[in-house]
# Entry
Amino acid sequence: MSAVAQSVAETRGVGAPARDAAGFGVYVHWPFCLSKCPYCDFNSHVRTRIEEGRWSAALTAELEHYAAETGARVVTSLFFGGGTPSLMAPESVAAIIARVKALWPTAADLEITLEANPTSVEAGRFAGYAAAGVNRLSLGVQALDDTALAFLGRRHSVAEALAAVELAVLHFPRTSFDLIYARPGQTLASWRKELAAALAHARGHLSLYQLTIEPATAFAEAYARGDIAMPEEENAAALYEATQEMLEAAGLPAYEISNHAAPGEESRHNLTYWRYGDYVGVGPGAHGRLTIAGEKWATRQHRAPEAWLERVEQDGHATRQQLALSPEECREEMLMMGLRLAEGVSRERFLKTCGMALETALERERLAQLTGGGFLLLDARGLRATAAGRQRLNAVLGMLLG
Ligand SMILES: C[S@@+](CC[C@H](N)C(=O)[O-])C[C@H]1O[C@@H](n2cnc3c(N)ncnc32)[C@H](O)[C@@H]1O
Ligand code: SF4
# Structure
């Protein structure tokens, strides 16, 4: 028995299954895409042939492996991410949902999200996903400008994306879509126009990411050659501020740096990450965080798709790393995640999770500088970043954590 399984066996009590206010999520990674977008450093791969039956069985096997480790905890969210999970057959999605429901008790309002690309072929599968039990669709629209879509290497047009958004609304009670902004040459006026169009089609949730140049991507090479000029810091800040202002006025304030929702429409799955709750991660490269016998464990699966598949077929899982986090690592992770949220880090949850009071965990001088500078706020509820602090969170965290 692994160390984790042993601690579970020792601590598994009788009575109702454990529930945590931050929720307990299950993440399933589908690592395939039709093509690789030049900005993307997610674990996504292009393959001409995928033996879907083998993949579906292997993902199910990893779920079984982790269910034995976690014991009976109430699952509050299930997330199919990628890669492009909308390339999966609805039957595979249905089989995985059924397995999750058989392995764990699930909340009555279980959130089941699937990430989809808005091409017409994928939209053709929406009805099948809804019938399988998916109740939230997150679409990778990325831009509402055909030239920008071509620059981002996307396979859909604006018209196709908007048709997919409208179709999604008919099939799923909750929908969201992603846009990438602060693109080379993007003006404030054109972004405001694009955002207004997005708001006309958005329901309760939008994810708005500033373009980042990730190492080892095609954009990183183009940037190094000088072929791409990223917006100056000042311009990027103006785009960010306009985004906050327009979304707030539309009733979709930021609940996290890049995520906006009407109250109650937040992604429960992502809230579990940011509140530093527990989640199981299966599929190539997936990460998990599990609290077992009072200790927080980090898990990570093999990243390369073929190696992952072979491992699972041989051993029942492809866990590459499973290690207990020190109180120091736990403190850092919880602050890094929680300060992304508008609600910040709860005093009570921090004590429960990290075993120390917030004040004890923070260096007094640094905290005083950051609160005095108007970047952080510490009160009876806990610690949170102000709007100015969230805008430059990396610098704030660098200073806070040293
Ligand atoms: C896993 S990806 C989305 C999945 C889906 N395959 C798609 O592309 O629509 C999650 C989101 O991260 C955002 N993203 C990925 N790389 C990014 C980058 N370098 N800069 C900004 N946003 C990025 C995109 O908006 C993307 O939709
Ligand atoms: S952005 Fe989405 S579709 Fe593009 S390569 Fe990354 S995961 Fe695949």
